[in-house]
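Researcher: Let's try something more involved. This one mixes different molecule types, so please make sure each is placed in the same coordinate frame as the others.
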Amino acid sequence: MTLDTRLSWTDVRDQVRARILNRTYAPGDRLPRDEDIAQELGCARTTVHRAMQDLALSGLVERKRKGGTHVRADPVTRATFDIPITRREVEDRGAKYNYQLISREMEQTPRAVMARFGLQAPAQMLRVRALHLADNRPYILEDRWVDTTSTPEILKVDLAQHSANEWLVRNKPYSRVDVRFSAITAEGTTAEYLAAPLGSALFVIERTTWIGADPITTVQSVAAPGYQLVAQS
Amino acid sequence: MTLDTRLSWTDVRDQVRARILNRTYAPGDRLPRDEDIAQELGCARTTVHRAMQDLALSGLVERKRKGGTHVRADPVTRATFDIPITRREVEDRGAKYNYQLISREMEQTPRAVMARFGLQAPAQMLRVRALHLADNRPYILEDRWVDTTSTPEILKVDLAQHSANEWLVRNKPYSRVDVRFSAITAEGTTAEYLAAPLGSALFVIERTTWIGADPITTVQSVAAPGYQLVAQS
DNA sequence: AAAATTAATATGTAGCTACATAAAAATGTC
DNA sequence: GACATTTTTATGTAGCTACATATTAATTTT
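Model: All components are placed in one shared frame. Result:
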C-alpha cells in the first residue's frame, strides 16, 4: 500500500471532467493552462496534457495552440462502433453460423458502386452475393463488389466454402474505410432471401475499403428485421 | 530546414501499419518489443509506445503486459460517429432549421423506456415529442423522456421556443451514454409527421444518458426517408 | 507430477527537460 | 488607420529516467 497520492492522468481527466459537469468550467469557457492545472493538482504538465488529450478526443473540449483549451459549447455525442466479421458477430451471440453463396460473376459496376468508390468510369468487377445465417435463419444479406485489379487473388478463392467477407478481412487489410448506415424497405429478392415481410424496414451497413488510392471492395450488408447496432461503451 | 530525420510517433505508427498491411507482420503474429522497434527505427521507446497505443486504439493490434503486441487475427472495422445537436446538423448541411413542439406532458414510462434506463419500476417522467425541420421539410421526429428527478429545471423551459434536444445538450452534461441504431417502418402518426410514405423505411437513433447512476433522458429520433449516417474519417 | 512460489520481462505510467509550432498579441512601418 | 513584422505564449512532441504492474516462465516445494 503506497501512501503517495500521486495522480494518474485518468484521475486528472476525471477531475477536469467533473468540473465541466458541475459547471466550474462552463460551455465555451477557457480552461486554465495545463501548467496551472498541473500546479494546482500537484502533478506534471505531461500528466495534465495526456488527460486533456483524452478529453479532446472524446469531444468534451477543444484545444488550440496558444488559444488554450475550451469547453465545447455544442458538445457532440461521439459513439464508436465495432463491425466484426459476420461469423464472429453471429457466434458471439451464441448462435450457429452458416453461409450460402448466392451468385458470383464479373459485372460492370453500376453508377451507385462507381459513386462509392469515387470512380469516373465504370469498371469490370467481381460481384458476390451471399447470405449469412444465424441458427439457420437469415441474418445478413451481402451484395459485394471486389476490384479484381487490386485483388486478383479473390478469383481463386472458393467462395462457396469461405465467405468473401472473411477472406477479405483476413487477407486484404485496407488503409482507408468508409462506413455508412441507412434504412431500406424490404422488396423483391432482398425480402425473399432475408425472409422478411414485404415492406418491412431493414438496417443497412455500407462499407467501402481502399488500399492507398486503389479500391478493394464495397459491400452493402442488409440485416434481417429487428437488427440493432449498439455503440461500444 | 532541419536535416535531422527524427521520427515522430505518427511516422512510427505508419511504418508499423505498413508492415502489417504488407504482411511483414501477419495476422496473429507477435510484433517485436517496443524497445527493439525503437532501436531499429532509431527513436525512443516512448515514441514507439505512443504509436502502438494508437494502433491498439484503432483495433489493428492488441497489447498485453508481458504478453507483447499481437496483430489482431480478426480485425474489426472501428467506426466513429459524431451525433451533433440537430440544429447544427441541419445548418451544417446549409439548410434552414426549424422546430415544432408536438406535445409535452407528464406520463408514466412504458416498458420500453424502463428497459432503456434499466429501471425496475415505472416512473413519472416528462415526455416531449417534437419535429425538427430542414428547409421547412420534416427532418427528424423525436420522442423524448426526461427524468424530472435528475433534471427538474426542464419543467421551467419553454419547449415551444427551444428544443429539449438543444437545452439538454447545453445544460445537462452526462457521464454515460448509450447509443444504438436501427430501422423501423413508417406507420401512423410517425409517417404523418415525417411526411413519409406509409411503409417506407426510417432510420432510428436511440440515445440514453445518465449522470452517475441517475437517468437524464432517452430519445428515439426517427429520421425522414433517405437519411444516411456517415462515419468520421 | 502437481501446486505453490519466485523470477523475469514487456508494457504502462509519471515526471523531467528541451525544443517545435501555431496562433494571438504587441509592435513597428507606411 | 491599415498592413506587415516581431514577440509572446500555450499546446504539441521527442527523449530520457525511474518505477509500476500484469503475466508468463522458471523454480522450488509438497
